[in-house]
Amino acid sequence: MSLKYLLILCSLVIANYAKANEPVTLLTGIISSSKYHLVTAPKTNRWQVQIQWMAEEGTIVKEGDLVVVFDSGGIESQLEVNEEKLETDVLELLKLEMDKGQAVLEADGALKLANIMVEKTRIEASVPDGEVSAYEKGKNVIEYEKAITAKIKAQENYKLKLEEQQIELNKKNIEILKLKEQIAYQRSQLEKLSVRAKVTGPVTHAMHQWMAQKVAAGMNIQASWEVLTVQAASTYQVSAWLHEIDAARIDLQKSSFELTLDAYPNQSYQGKVISVSSQAEQKSQWSDSAYYRVELGFDEQPKQAIFPGMSVRVKLKQQNLAHNGQSDTERGI
Prior knowledge:
The protein is an alpha+beta fold and 333 residues long. It has 4 helices and 16 strands. The strands form 3 sheets. The chain has a 6-stranded antiparallel beta barrel with strand order 1-10-14-12-11-15.
């Protein structure tokens, strides 16, 4: 054998050996859609909310269809009471405006009359001494002084009635404003308790945070917990989870991805990184470790029929490592 053929054979052996020992990491993934509607439990006046009804998992819902109904927890009855109270308060405000307005008008009339009496008694008291008796003169002066005193009291009373009118009306208006805000808040809560789909696609129920089962109607869950997802039947991608240990040593941008759907094991597709979550998530059903969510896109869309929720085997080939650590094993999640 010539030296030339020997070198070629050695290079092939080395290449095959390197390929066989290329670091590979296996990830668990599922088919998802880049356009979706995630429904979470709303915040109510209780620490938990009950699910009264849910669309069945796997059913295709249209945009605008009802997908989840949560228990109102008495919000609807409280809203009815507040709406009735608002009507009563509005009528009371109208009556209060009339009553206080009438009191101000009466005080204003009394003040005008007091001004007239002051002017009348002033004229009588200013009559020269020679034209009336001393008795009449003194009497007119006393009446003038009484009129001035009555005018001062009428002015104070008018001012007091104006202040009472302003204070009482402001107080009632504030009560009505608070009641309107409370009614608006309760109405928004009721709207959140009946959730309608924002996209057209299949329904997927979320996993319960504490129990190893999916969320279902009749369960009590806490606010902000995931309930279900409606994923648009288009723009499919793969959502995979990368272990926090692997995330520290793998450069995803310099790695290749081979995607194989469990439903079609004989066909594989090449993938690319779309996005990586900046914060790790706990997956209690897997282990006590945390995982980073990695969104992968297909270089070429699959020809087979695929649906959200289908499981995918992701083979990540580490062409370049973020650190110098080496691995010749496969890590499955």
